[in-house]
Amino acid sequence: MKRVTFQLILFFFLPLACGAPEKTTDPEHSPRKKLVMQYMDSGWNSIDGSSLGELLAEGYERNLNGIQVVKGTVELEAYIQNYRRAFPDLKVTLDQWVESDEQVVAVWTFEGTNTGVFGEFVPTGKKARVHGVSLFTVNEQNKIISEDIYYNELYLLQQLGYDLIPPILE
Length: 170
Prior knowledge:
This protein has 170 residues and is α+β, with helices and mostly antiparallel strands. The chain is 33% helix and 32% strand. Strand 1 and strand 2 form a beta hairpin.
């Protein structure tokens, strides 16, 4: 009987002791979410990326799989244009994200058809679709300080028809 009484007390009073879950602001209206969406739309999904400077902090850095590939707005605009030349129909879709005080982790999908030169690779006319994750760090002025991107570059190239050549072990 003591056991049943104790279980009933836990059943009725434990939820009250825990309290109601804390309400959070709707991520649809978060300034950081709007910033990341605007960055994707005006930078990656638009032919004209001239408004990127308004979204980025001075000294902005972009790292791809742990390697710095961009420093500053001018380099980012050139970097994006290289992708847009290689994939004129490219589209980046934000699938999910998680926010903290200064960071937004965004899961995204990149889609496009390779009809232009991509780095040292000739156009293949093939479609590619890859998923990746970006970690954005945002300052107090709601500008992007840095972006750390992680995605499988080999998978992208394999979709375009490229493959790894085994190493020569002699």
